[in-house]
Amino acid sequence: MIVTITINGKKESLQIEPGDMLVDTLRNAGHVEVKKGCDTGNCGVCTVLLDGKPIRSCSFLAVRAEGHEITTIQGVAEEARRFADFLNREGADQCGFCAPGFALTVIAMKRELKNPTEEEIRHYLAGNLCRCTGYESQHRAIRNYLEADHA
Amino acid sequence: MNHAAHHRKSMESATSDGSAAPASTKAAAMAAGSGVVPESVPNVTGATQYIDDIPLPAGCLQAAVRLSDSARGRILALHTEAALALDPSVRIITAKDIPGTNQIGTNKADEPLLPEEEWEYWGQPLVLVVAATRSLARRAASLITIASEELPAVLDPREAAAKGDLIFPPRTIAYGNVEDAFARCDYVVEGRVDSGGQEHVYLETQGAIAEVIDGRRVRVISSTQGPTGVQRAVATVLGLPMNMVEVEARRLGGAFGGKEDQAANWASLAALAAWITGRPVELYLNRKEDMRATGKRHPYSSDFRIGADRNGMILAFEATYYQNSGCTCDLSPAILGRTVLHATGAYKVPNVRVTGLMCRTNLPSFTAFRGFGAPQAFFVIESAIDALAQRMGVDPVEIKRRNLYREGDETYYGMKLERVRASEAVERLLDKAHYLQARQRVNDFNATHRLEKKGLAMIPVAFGISFTKLMMNQGGALVHVYSDGSVLVSTGAIEMGQQVARKVALVAARTLGVPIEKVHVQRTTTLTVANTVPTAASTGSDLNGQAARIACTEIRSRLLAKAAEMLDASPEELDIANGMIYRRGQPTSLRWESLIEAAHQARIDLSAHGFFATPFLQYDMKAERGKPFAYHVYGAALVEATIDLLRHTYRLDRVTIVHDIGDSIDVSVDRGQVEGALAQGLGWALLEDLRFDGKGKPLSDTLSTYKVPDNEFMPGEIDIEFLPPVENPTTPYNSKAVGEPPLQYGIAGYFAVLDAVRAARGTGIEYYNLPLIPEKVSQLLAGKEG
Predict the structure, then answer these.
(1) N or C: at which end does chain B have fewer Cβ atoms within 10 angstroms?
(2) What is the per-residue pLDDT across A112-144, written as a single tens digit (0 to 9) for each?
(3) pTM tops 0.90
């Protein structure tokens, strides 16, 4: 079957099987910036935005994306580049495998929450696992990133 | 998933191979207008290509493995008809198809790539399947039926030891006279300590892409920490000399030891399939396959006896470590070596006898994991001191302070310690954290709170740096300066998130005297640097940084000779720094780019190979005496925890760390390593519960059944201070290794929670069984220590 999904602002018609997960559909269509970590919706590596809200594309059937807008990290590449600089400065840029899903969640959080508290930030990002950093450097980077916008 | 994965488009912004050298905190900011993309950008935008992101060669097939579904059995017959009928592209490969030697064991020939008759653990790859797409290959693998005979399995290391099923004979280090010393002790305490395994959960699972070139050579891209090990395994399996096998490792999506020895299996399977089919083949495990089939941190079960005088001076320590090695040798001997060489932790003990046993069980072959046998040893000695403190009725911190290694102490394996910083770290930590007030505050809290109790614990660390296998302490580098003045560095160091590429780039830039943005550190291939050791044992930047420094020094001296000729000066008067040539401290008109151009015109070699072997190491395995480590890394951590007596849950309130990074090459990188290691250590000590059922079936084989730290688990406050720089002659610019030592700090998390449980129960508990998950806390609160 064919689904039509708007991916990063561009309408794409993709051949899928009914049981296909969105992450595989996206990756097979060349969007390998969407990484795949666990297949069970636990790690957040495969995060994409569905109509602006973060979802785990490994646990989301591709058919359900029909007619919706999907944003991968490449869809917010400028913002991602800006955030990368903050990660780099805090030693938060480690293996990089979780980075696209994590950065997309941070960007979505920034759009959704005004002046989030430390607790709100931790809760918003609790679903994005990182095995390298222990999260501390990520938090420093997020705070600097959010503050830079207020300055 | 019906699309062949070779439809992947190459990404428009994929400009980096994943090992660029970005601007650094210590280096100058990037020059304006520079076209070099900082490394974090491709990582964050998803442009970095990990194994499953690399555009595949035309005609690439996908492989899958059929895993065993019992802990031990014998294959009687394979029925492959249904699998073959699924699709014409399906091809089934077994041990019989291996053209070379069916053996990938590195320390012992006990590990066939595919079993010929018997399998040894639940999740072992039995049959290799190739098909046009990954989903077809997986489905075909699941359609194979195996007629088999069940065989009895052993899961417990003590049971294996009792049966004499050891991988190698026991290893004992004896020092002083333990029996005499115990007889003189005022306190002697015995106990048992257990520590669980730990799954690596590198977020990128294992995989490889292999292709046959010109029908006679093989090229493999592997997610591995050890390309040379992969090269050797592939060559063995295919019956080729190593010069016909090329292995490349790009940036890994995490490894933590899990891709040191155990990446070779997947690379060899992919290469075997490519060799047999003549087509490129990718093999990429999904999470469940990876968690079932690959090794993890070794579970240990240990017995200890510790003795002290009435002042708390430890006089004797004895331990027996039953290492659950799993079903094959793998790296178990080296890991056990690190255990028996860290038996007394950060403490001087005058009489020691420790024995380690590698117990063969029908579980996955346990393997390298950050810390490599040392965390298990630290947990035993810290448990022993904790038990001793309980019996003596004193604060364990007091016993620990008194027994720390001092300058000039000899370890129980005969190494004279220099530049010891154990007390410096501990005293600075206790001072910084206002320990006495903190203890009083915790006691006051516990006296006034009925539903919550707090605990506090401190651990000091002295962690030996060097591979315990002497020959592995070597590194190689190849440095090219191109005619435009840009520099390309290749080393054996695999970039897997520890930012070793950045460190090597900083070392090269500093040695050559150029800005960091002139230097690019290239991915590792066996074509550029041969006979590499795996990037492991925290030695990546020490060994490879030194090799790069040696190569750069060679090129620099050629350039200084040329510059001297151009400036009519002597080379001794000249210096290169920041891309400028200086004469007696004054800048000259000569710049790096012009010097390189002139040197090239003058036919001067602008390339060099550097080789480094760590000096002064020696160890007599028979006597168990020597200097196995180039140096030690010191530090200490204090952890405060609170348990909730209604819910039996706990939280980590605060961690304070004082840690030794020497004269760091990049402080922000080192801070990131300390924080990341702490998280993994806390995960191992408190959270990560690796389970098998009574038949050896893995129960924690997905991220929904195996919990790793998320950001809400982490302590609310983490305060890390670095000790001032100190001389450290065998490393680049007096830096120190950083990857593994801070992992031990997680052990203080265990004892902080245990301390809170004791406050709740009001009685001493000697319970040393890690991880201390909430379920165990609940049982302890109910008075059940089982």
Answers:
(1) C
(2) 999 999 999 999 999 999 999 999 999 999 999
(3) yes
Is B785 among the catalytic positions? no
Q: What chain B residue is nearest to A45 in terms of C-alpha separation?
A: B203
Q: For residue B138, list chain A residues with Cβ-Cβ distance below 8 A.
A: none
d(CA B221, CA B240): 17
List A residues 66-125 in contact with B (Cβ-Cβ < 8 A). 72-74, 77, 80-81, 83-85, 87-100, 103, 122-123, 125
Contact list in A for residue B670 (CB cut-off 8 A) is 91
Q: pLDDT, tens digit, for every residue of B232-249?
A: 999 999 999 999 999 999
**Two structure tokens written together for B175:** 């020092």
Distance CA(B657)–CA(B742), nearest Å, equals 9
Amino acid, single-letter form, for residue A45: V
Residue B252 and residue A95: Cβ atoms within 8 Å? yes
* Cβ count near B729 (within 10 Å): 11
Q: Which two tokens stand for residue B262?
A: 């155990």
| pLDDT on residue B34 | 53
CB contact under 8 A, A91 and B499: yes
**Residues of B with Cβ-Cβ distance to A122 under 8 angstroms:** 711-712
Full DSSP string of B71-93 = SSEEEEEEE-HHHHHH-TT-EEE
Give A120 to chain B, closest Cα distance, Å: 10
Which amino acid, B681?
G
Q: Is pLDDT at B416 greater than 60 in this prediction?
A: yes
Q: Give me the helices (H) in B213-344, please.
A: 227-238, 264-277, 287-293, 332-340
Whether residue B44 and residue A99 make contact (CB cut-off 8 A), yes or no, is: yes
What count of Cα atoms within 13 Å lies in the side-chain half-sphere of residue B679?
27
Q: Give the best residue of A97, A109, A121, A133 to mutate against chain B (max B CB count within 10 A).
A: A97
With an 8 Å Cβ cutoff, are B675 and A137 in contact?
yes
Contact residues, chain B, for A88 at CB < 8 Å:
22-23, 38-40
**CA-based nearest distance B408→chain A, Å:** 35
Longest dimension (CA), chain B: 84
pLDDT in tens, B584-595: 999 999 999 999
**Cα–Cα distance list, B404 to B6, B340, B698 (Å):** 58, 18, 40
Cβ pair A40:B287 closer than 8 A:
yes
* Mean pLDDT of the residues in chain B: 94
Q: Which domains does chain A have, with CATH numbers?
A: 2-74 (3.10.20.30), 75-148 (1.10.150.120)
Fill in the amino acid letter for B466: S
- Closest approach of B683 to chain A, Cα-based (Å): 10
Q: Provide, rounded to the nearest whole percent, the portion of chain B with pLDDT above 70.
A: 95
Task: Give A 15-34 residues with CB within 8 A of chain B.
Answer: 15-17, 20, 24, 27-30, 32-34
Per-residue confidence band for B785, with pLDDT thresholds at 50, 70 and 90: confident
Nearest C-alpha of chain A: how many angstroms from B733?
20
> What domains lie within chain B, and their CATH numbers?
2-18+32-48+474-613 (3.30.365.10), 436-465+631-786 (3.30.365.10)
Q: What pLDDT band is residue B786 in, cutting at 50, 70 and 90?
A: low
Pick from B615, B616, B633: which is nearest to B736 by CA? B633
Residue B375: strand, helix, or coil: helix
Q: Which residues of A touch B256 (CB under 8 A)?
A: 131
Q: How far apart are the first and last CA of chain B?
A: 47
The ipTM, to two decimals, is: 0.98
Contact B253 A88 (CB under 8 A): no
Measured between alpha carbons, how far is residue B591 from residues A139, B217, B326, B458, B594 in Å?
41, 44, 59, 53, 5
Peptide bond into B771 cis (omega under 30): yes
